[in-house]
Fold this sequence. Notes:
The chain is mainly α. Among the domains are: 1-49 and 617-711, Serine Threonine Protein Phosphatase 5, Tetratricopeptide repeat (Alpha Horseshoe); 79-220, Rossmann fold; 226-296. 65% of the residues lie in helices and 5% in strands. It contains 33 helices and 7 strands. InterPro entries: P-loop_NTPase, TPR-like_helical_dom_sf, TPR_rpt. Residues 689-711 are annotated as: Disordered. TPR repeats lie at residues 582-615.
Amino acid sequence: MAKRRRSLVLAAGPIVGALIGALTNIATTRWNWWLIAGLAALVGVAVAIVVATDASPAAPAARGRNLLPRDLTDFTGRAKDLDRIVSARSPIYSVDGMGGIGKTSLAVHAAHRLADSYPGAQVFLDLRGFSEGEPPLPLPEALEILLLAVGVPADQIPAATAARVNLWRAELGARKAVVVLDNAAGADQVRPLLPGASSSLVIVTSRRRLFDLDGVETVSLDVLSPAEASELFRIVLGRPAPDAASIVARLGHLPLAIRLAAAWLRHHPELSGDDLMRRLDTPLASVREVFLLAYRALDEPARKALALVAFAPTADVTADSAAALLRMSPPETQAVLDALCDRNLLSEPVAGRFTIHDLVRESVMRHGEFAGLRADAIGDLMRHYRDAGAGTPVMADLSWWHAEIDNIVMCARHAIQAEEHPFTWELPLTAAQYLRVRDRIALLSDLLQAAEAATDDPAVSAEILRELGICAWLTGRYADATILTTRALETFTAVGDPMGCAHAVSNLGRIDKHTGDLASARVHLQDALGRYDELGDTTDWAAIQLLLCALDRKGGDLGAARARADAALKVAVETGQRDLEADARTQAGTLDRLEGRYTEARRNFERALALDEEMGDRLQTAYVHRHFARLETDLSAFTEARNRLGLALGIYLEIESSQGVADTHQQLSELAERAGDKAAARRHRAKALEMSRVLGRQKPEPGTLSSAAAG
């Protein structure tokens, strides 16, 4: 499978290169009609590797994604309300009504119906306005989630809330998107998230009527009609129900109550509708009463599972995370979760991820059974995320981190608020590398600062200070980075942690390197090299050798650089460190290229590329493609060089690395200059400069943030 995937990626290179050529020709009015005619087909094949050019310079490949929850296959009724929304006469619809009335189901169903008319993106966001035990989603966080959802790279999201609002509205104005803002606390929470132009459509749900929103068309939901309610009951029950009308009348025609009651009766085929009626206490049974009926019908393990899922401070659970809550095996847990879904007590909007309705959560909380297990269960869940995160390499399994990071952050915030040590600092430190890779530096800094305030352990404080120093370095605050890293070094020294000292010294060298103080960088890196040597840490010793190799190469001492690259490569091969070997071969290949040893350079780059692809290290893979492109450029193989840069650009777009996109545009400009296409060179150079101004900062080159810095 890995070999096939690599073949597909390499096969896409010429396609992306051709796209660059085609778009360049169009932009320079050299109209190659065969290219234009084939452009649509090329785009279709290379959709995952969209090349940012003059026409759409930074449109990520992920834009246009559908992030809506799964649609209900048994959606019933609401025809007039659905038609109003699907007609899209207004850019904003507000769906209001009591809890359990079916607001979210209607909004999601309508959004799925509208997806073809709004192809730019289909986005869903729970604003947590009425979630038991959780505060409403803060505006800055809501904006960050929405901007990421429509494909804005994390490092292009501004820190200021007002700037995020403006960017979000600009993104909505630039595309036709349908956005569902679910569970809003009120108009004030929603207003900053609404579009400024009418090209996109927003559907808001709330228990409150949001009549004070400008330009909104309100859809106020009542209970289902008797006919609709009876039909829903029959569909969920899965068999004829001659007494459906009287049952749903007893349930007040409330959709959630109907689903719960029908699911209960479906699991008791020996009982009749009359039996169900006798178990309902009042003529108009509330969701709480029906919940209690369904809840009492569960065996103890299922009741316990539902309660502990309700207690979890996360957006959803999986079989693995719920297994930690329940202290059961994942297969056993999966069976319990499926059974609860079958009874409509949980839902599975995305395959493998289970959520609980707010009203069901509230009912569980009020019922109080198993409340004594809450603290221990949440502790088990936080321990699961700490251990799973520590055991899941970020670059090797980005999909796991993408899916779980919000839950890890929610657990970290719970730990901080509840003072659940040591998770207060362990969870932020666990998430640090992923949040750095995704450029969610502001969020990481907030968590780390709260963690540092919570700990009185100087050893932990030193590690947090080191991470805060990296955050400052990555955001271009080099003076702050130096101060924080120096404090970390002093604290590591005070607690007698020589490895922490070595990491801090090496980071000071990196900071110096990126401020241009190469002499100081060399001093710090040589110091770190000696420390790692004394500690017997050959991996980090070799990583520092590669940083010094780069300094030697820039200083023109290729002999010294070669010795360092060879030493690092020897360690990598002997210890089986594939990531280190890939870095070492990239440096060795660069030296081979500079010395005119092109066959050896190609061999080293090919080996580095194979290793990075095996590990799933997308960032380093793109970095090697760029070095490979320089080799092809030196050999005047301009088409091959452009193909390599196309592959690199596609990866940077996929992982939303704006700095990588900017660097690749700069390299494309150099390639175009060598190929004699001065107009294309100017355009790519302008794009690189434009993106650098947007970024407003420097970032380390891929591959330089070694384990010594990342921890």
